[in-house]
User: Fold Peptidoglycan-binding protein from Pedobacter frigoris.
Amino acid sequence: MEIARKEIGVVERTGKNDGARIAEYLGYCNIKSPAAYCAAWVSWVFGQAGYSEPRTAWSPSLFPKARLVKELKPGIVYGLYYISLDRIGHCGLLENVKNDWINGIEANTNEAGSREGQGVYRKIRHKRTIHCFADWLK
Assistant:
């Protein structure tokens, strides 16, 4: 989580999924910028921590059945489901839980919590807004 925390405040160069750091996140997953990068960022964070997986820029692929968990701890990946997409469309890393609230760090978001934001932010979301959780630490 320390690696993720150090990325808070990284922002896109022009607000179009671009910039050197964004290209680095996407490049880790062999994706060229500009592209949505929330899952690539999660993968990059795990890679920087020495994990070989996950390595994907597609947020739904962060949630295979074998990785789904109910026990919440720092470093768990969470996914937000979007009815308009009929799939998970955004993800983040759980920092901690306080009562019914998830404190996390997300990329390709903004202060309002959009999935089309312009940087890496700390977010607070209610548990009921989270579709599922996956453990890539084991």
Observations:
- The mean pLDDT is 97.
- The domain at 2-134 is CATH 3.90.1720 (endopeptidase fold (from Nostoc punctiforme)).
- DSSP finds three helices and five strands in the chain.
- The chain has one domain: 2-134.
